[in-house]
Amino acid sequence: MPISRRHAAQGLALGAAGLALAGCTSPLATPTPARAPTAEPSLDALARAKGLRFGSTLGSLGRSSRFHDLPYRELTARECGVLVAENETKWQALRPNPGKAYDFAAADEMFSWARARGMALRGHTLLWLEPKWLPAWVNALNFGATDGETARRVLAEHVSTTCRHFGDSIESWDVVNEAIAPETGELRRNVFSAPLGGVEQIDLCFRLARAHAPQAQLVYNDYMSWGGGNNARHRTGVLKLLTELKRLGTPVQALGIQGHIVARPQASAADATEWRRWLDEIQALDLDLLITEFDVNDKGLPADFAQRDAGVAAVARDWLDVTLAAPRLRRLLCWGLVDQHSWLHGFDPRDDQLPQRPLPYDDQRQPKLLRTAIADALRATPARSA
Ligand code: 9MR
After folding, report:
1. Distance from the CA of 124 to the center of ligand 1, in angstroms?
2. Which of 5, 15, 66, 79 has its CA 20 to 30 A from that of 243?
3. Ligand 1 surroundings by CB, under 6 angstroms
4. How far is the CA of 253 from the centre of ligand 1 (A)?
5. E runs forming strands in 18-85
């Protein structure tokens, strides 16, 4: 099911490497491999050298379990210092049926594996506000506009049960995910909007998370990026929401920038300037920043693998250079490491039916130019003070 909404207007830059696209001619050739990962420091080691951490996601649910692809998960352990579950800590996964107990087994298995390898954990997400990502039974609750007490109890049960289960093992929680509609810049509505209010349900979730996960960093996570159109409206809406939360004293501590960027050969010096200014405004609210779900949608690039990989790497480098330069940004997580396991195959396939190549490694687990771009961006970013 394509989610074109998020990709509508992400005009992105191609820097120097992107301009090299024109020279690539071999159809579907694999480009010169990026530097071998084994001879290189891991991405997390490069990140740590600058006071950041690098991480990625793994998932164990469904037919194509990434977690049970053993070479893939060892690659994840080699490159990463932080792990986030792709789906296993979402409300829908933990409690699809209100008549049954919470099921933490899938998340627990992945998290205990990650902790044994010294990885820090991120939780994603306590409230994915849009109705289509809430459990069907939650959407079906009929609170009525005045029954705030019951609505509050449902949210409180979910947030407290989930936070308490994971205790202080989770260093950072995406408390609320994707509350702003990019088409309008306004708050989305869900079953909690009438009885509790739009901003109020978000405020409540953060307060509950603070009470039940006192050690965790509390994050608002969304997919606004640079560029005009929907992205501009989305940025305005997110800034407005965070400003209002701060005014209310909501314990939000950081903005998670998902970073599902889209490769299109468009110049964007103005986009970069505007993005930098917006990141400054967010930090001026006394908020930290994280990149939580980085990948590059290559629908706008040619079929040829060499051209595509060069284009993806160039766009990534441009975006990462600007975004990583934000002084309060200390985490960079990819939404997967190997192309084969990307969500984009199902959600936003290419028009030519060829598989997307959005991640730092190809299906043979060989590093691509995107890995080089990420490594170089980490090398180039200023060091954060301790
Ligand atoms: O990658 C995830 C995919 O496997 C799930 O089917 C989908 C719905 O739960 O969510 C995807 O992850 C999303 C993340 O939770 C929030 N930001 C956007 C991600 C890609 O859609």
Report:
1. 10
2. 5
3. 86-87, 90, 133, 177, 258, 293, 343, 347
4. 23
5. 53-58, 82-85
CATH of 5-15+40-380, one of 3.40.50.1100, 3.20.20.80, 3.10.50.40, 3.90.230.10: 3.20.20.80
**Which atom of ligand 1 approaches the CA of 57 most closely?**
1
Specify the residue for token string 């996964």. 93
Using one digit for the tens of pLDDT, what is the confidence trace for 4-34? 333 333 333 333 333 233 223 333 444 444 4
Ligand 1 atom, smallest distance to 223 CA? 17
Q: How far is the CA of 86 from the centre of ligand 1 (A)?
A: 7
Task: Read off the pLDDT of residues 313-347 as tens digits, 9 standing for 90 and up.
Answer: 999 999 999 999 999 999 999 999 999 999 999 99
Cis, peptide link before residue 30, omega less than 30° from 0: no
Nearest CA to ligand 1 atom 1: 343
Q: What tens digit of pLDDT does each residue of 183-239 get? A: 999 999 999 999 999 999 999 999 999 999 999 999 999 999 999 999 999 999 999
> What is the end-to-end Cα distance of the chain in Å, rounded?
43
Q: Which of 48, 39, 81 is nearest to 372 (CA)?
A: 39
